[in-house]
Recover the amino acids of this structure.
């Protein structure tokens, strides 16, 4: 009568993680409201400003290289903030997250796949900007600078994933894009990602260390040899702290959801 | 227990669960036995969803114990034997059905073949489409496909036929019957009492967080004395309505339908007063009437 057959589970964890990540990436790539601004805006802005200010140079400062670093940061913030924020809010609201938790999905696969998605988008944005920088904006960098910038941008998505996740656990799917834009756009401007901090009012410069985007921006600038401020370790520590705090809040919210 | 020697697939033991000031479950014992289809019925807010959430490990009981195949509902090993179809599971609109199936199949050690799964759930022609482009009924069928994708030994079906047309509902029912015949246990929660009547081996009725009745469909129906009399008669409904033992009466064209506790005496009186009466039928009350009776008397007791 007891029909339960005991067999060794033949579930492949790498396969689950790979499928989840691939589908998370496809899901957002196929959503024009996400993919178009995420992939296009940084490239568009960079072309516009880098070409416009290409002659703008003083000492170490070269606008086309400076903006490559800061628009790269601006670009990789989006998959973290929107990719996590909007999709987690929707998944919660529509019951998909509940179903996933009821299914025998390995714990961790849900967030790991979104993280992989965000990093894949970050790598795509990095590549697009790098190609534009070399071909359109006439950027020449020492070979070692490219992998440094790549690493800063790929791992730089982490704090923004944590912020996005946190927002996604707090607001509805409909409100999420608006809330995230309210964080994303002002922070990018105030952190000096759109135009160099030194041409912004002193007040903006003084409060800039409050924004995680500022710290990532400084790391990216240092990676490409542009003038940056502060100790690199302090920037890394600030970003790590942001990641931990927002993850902790999100974890509490998800446990109660 | 009827099925002695076989451990329950899922179990609630003296479970209590509160949400703020609301007691959702107030000391509930419930077993889903191997190979049976248990229908969990109850009015809205009776605690059905809470019972299901506890068995799936989505919520923790405040007191008592929850077991899934003898283990904690959090044990991955136990959950790999479970299939789930929830009431609302809005999947990502931009993913294709084929992708959703592949993802869910990957969670299970011995999944159904993807084509077989799609065919069984009646979605073979939809696998290349995006989830967001499907109709409500098609979405429900996809959700059912994901529930059976892992060859579950225990299947949770929460309101499975909401949004389905008659034909799809019949197809779903016959698939569920085949799964049960194959030894799969099913916990069904439903608002359609005819669905419970058509499928259930056993019924448990929840009201105000307690199990107030449990038994086969026949046993539950027998708990109410009501019967339904149908006939074609020239008698005025108002006249019949005044007779002793008549609970309600309604007229549909020339047919009259009477619900009564005393079928024999009402039939005698009908035949005595209308010699031209034709098409007489007497039926025991269905699960719907029994359910109403059980839950209303429970609520009346509670109020007293």
């Amino acid at each position: 009568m007891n029909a339960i057959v005991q067999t060794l589970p033949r579930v492949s964890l790498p396969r689950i993680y790979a499928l989840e990540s691939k589908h998370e990436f496809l899901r957002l790539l196929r959503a024009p409201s996400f993919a178009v601004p995420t992939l296009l805006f940084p490239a568009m802005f960079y072309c516009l400003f880098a070409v416009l200010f290409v002659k703008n140079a003083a000492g170490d400062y070269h606008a086309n290289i400076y903006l490559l670093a800061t628009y790269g940061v601006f670009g990789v913030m989006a998959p973290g903030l929107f990719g996590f924020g909007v999709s987690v809010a929707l998944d919660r609201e529509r019951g998909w997250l509940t179903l996933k938790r009821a299914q025998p999905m390995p714990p961790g696969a849900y967030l790991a796949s979104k993280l992989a998605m965000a990093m894949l988008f970050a790598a795509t944005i990095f590549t697009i900007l790098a190609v534009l920088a070399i071909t359109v904006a006439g950027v020449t960098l020492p070979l070692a600078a490219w992998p440094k910038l790549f690493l800063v941008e790929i791992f730089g998505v982490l704090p923004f994933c944590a912020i996005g996740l946190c927002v996604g656990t707090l607001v509805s799917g409909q409100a999420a894009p608006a809330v995230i834009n309210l964080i994303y756009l002002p922070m990018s401007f105030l952190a000096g990602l759109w135009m160099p901090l030194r041409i912004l009012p002193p007040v903006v410069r003084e409060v800039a260390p409050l924004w995680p985007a500022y710290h990532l921006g400084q790391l990216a600038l240092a990676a490409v040899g542009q003038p940056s401020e502060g100790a690199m370790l302090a920037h890394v520590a600030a970003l790590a702290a942001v990641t931990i705090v927002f993850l902790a809040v999100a974890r509490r919210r998800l446990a109660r959801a | 227990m009827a099925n002695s020697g076989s451990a329950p697939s899922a179990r609630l033991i003296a479970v209590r669960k509160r949400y703020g000031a609301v007691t959702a479950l107030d000391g509930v014992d419930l077993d889903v036995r191997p190979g049976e289809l248990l229908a969990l019925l109850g009015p809205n807010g009776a605690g059905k969803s809470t019972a299901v959430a506890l068995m799936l490990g989505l919520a923790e009981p405040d007191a008592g114990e929850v077991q899934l195949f003898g283990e904690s509902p959090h044990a991955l090993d136990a959950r790999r034997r479970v299939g789930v179809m929830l009431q609302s599971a809005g999947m990502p609109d931009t993913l294709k059905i084929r992708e959703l199936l592949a993802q869910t199949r990957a969670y299970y050690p011995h999944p159904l073949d993807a084509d077989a799964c799609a065919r069984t759930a009646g979605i073979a022609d939809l696998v290349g489409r995006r989830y967001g482009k499907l109709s409500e009924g098609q979405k429900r069928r996809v959700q059912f496909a994901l529930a059976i994708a892992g060859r579950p030994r225990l299947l949770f079906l929460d309101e499975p036929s909401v949004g389905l047309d008659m034909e799809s509902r019949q197809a779903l029912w016959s698939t569920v019957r085949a799964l049960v015949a194959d030894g799969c246990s099913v916990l069904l929660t439903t608002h359609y009492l005819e669905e419970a009547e058509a499928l259930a081996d056993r019924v448990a009725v929840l009201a105000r967080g307690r199990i107030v009745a449990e038994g086969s469909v026949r046993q539950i129906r027998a708990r109410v004395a009501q019967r339904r009399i149908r006939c074609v008669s020239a008698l005025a409904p108002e006249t019949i309505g005044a007779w002793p033992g008549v609970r309600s009466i309604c007229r549909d064209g020339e047919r009259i339908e009477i619900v009564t506790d005393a079928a024999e005496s009402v039939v005698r009186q009908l035949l005595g007063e209308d010699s031209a009466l034709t098409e007489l039928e007497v039926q025991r009350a269905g699960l719907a009437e029994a359910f109403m009776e059980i839950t209303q008397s429970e609520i009346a007791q509670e109020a007293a």
